[in-house]
Amino acid sequence: MITPPARLRKSYEQGELDEEAATNKPLEQFAAWFADARRIKGLEPNAMTLATASADGRPSARVVLLKEFDASGLVWYTNYDSRKGAELDANPVASLLFFWAPLERQVRVEGRVEKVTPEESDAYYAVRPLDSRIGAWASPQSQVIANRGVLVANAAKAAAEHGLHPLRPDHWGGYRLVPEVWEFWQGRTSRLHDRLRYRLEGGDWVRERLAP
Question: What is the pLDDT of residue 79?
Fold first, then answer.
């Protein structure tokens, strides 16, 4: 018999997050947790849920892959003509969520979003596998298509036209989320989870504990 969702239970006992153990800078805390996640075999540590909203506030979310992070923000790449691209054009703020189940950890990041420079997009596009570079030409992302054959035909046409060294299409490139809020969540027993939030105030990061 299948257990109904309301009866599913898990006790979180992998770790803790207190103010003394956490750093004062959220980027350093993220880098440390990201390094921990990279050591977990089979985990895709850079998978993150990207939540955007349309101009009228209708939300949507999907999983994308983090490709870079530093003091300037967190970067991913996609089709600018996709649904997420249209929503970011209309409402350039977003939220990111990392969930690393084996570590019982979540990281949430909120902030404004900007496009990376064309030079940055060119540099990343150039190191992608050839099939992925062709795919950027072949897929009219988020548009209705008749069947998978359309993608196959588009890919064959793009490969014939662009050869082994395709240039980056104008409709494809990177976005950078510039953090204004970070939240680090560590699962704990009895649902008394640890939550530390860092919010930007006057150019400085203010760290505070939130109730779970």
Answer: 98
CA neighbours closer than 13 Å in the CB half-sphere of residue 87? 21
191 labelled catalytic: yes
Region 130-142: what's the mean pLDDT? 95
For 81-91, the pLDDT digits (tens) are: 999 999 999 99
Which position among 188, 191, 197, 207 bears the catalytic label? 191
Contact in structure between 174 and 116 (CB atoms under 8 Å): yes
- DSSP letters, 64-107, are EE--EEETTEEEEEEETTSHHHHHHHHS-EEEEEEEEGGGTEEE
Indicate whether 7 pLDDT > 90: no
CA distances from residue 154 to 147, 158, 163 in whole angstroms, order as listed: 12, 6, 14
* Angle of the 130-138 helix axis to the 148-162 helix axis, nearest 10: 120
Which token pair is 183? Answer: 């939240």
Domains identified in the chain and CATH numbers = 11-127+170-209 (2.30.110.10)
Closest CA to 47 of 57, 59, 37: 37
- pLDDT average, residue stretch 116-139: 97
pLDDT > 90? residue 124: yes
